[in-house]
Amino acid sequence: MNLRRLVWLVPPVALLGAVAYAHNAICDCFDNGDNTITCEGGFSDGGKAVGVPVRVLDGAGKVLIEGAMSAQSDFKFPKPKVDYRVVFDGGEGHIVTIDGRDIAK
Length: 105
Prior knowledge:
3-stranded antiparallel sheet, 18% helix
């Protein structure tokens, strides 16, 4: 293969590698109206969030509740009586934090 042909192949191959790994974490939570909160998670490439760690923290960062996304990529927990935030931890660069005040019925 000559050098000119090789130069034209490198950019498309490099781009394919970047596209294959480009995805974002997605998490949304809602108030069930019965003093429980449900969060649903996944990834923008369609990947499920089964087993992804979830933590509920108070205003000082103390862990109130921790668990993981279920086989249905959701996590249900009792609504804390204090200010809180939910942290969906899909790994480095894939962390979503939701303030409890932004969770609507």
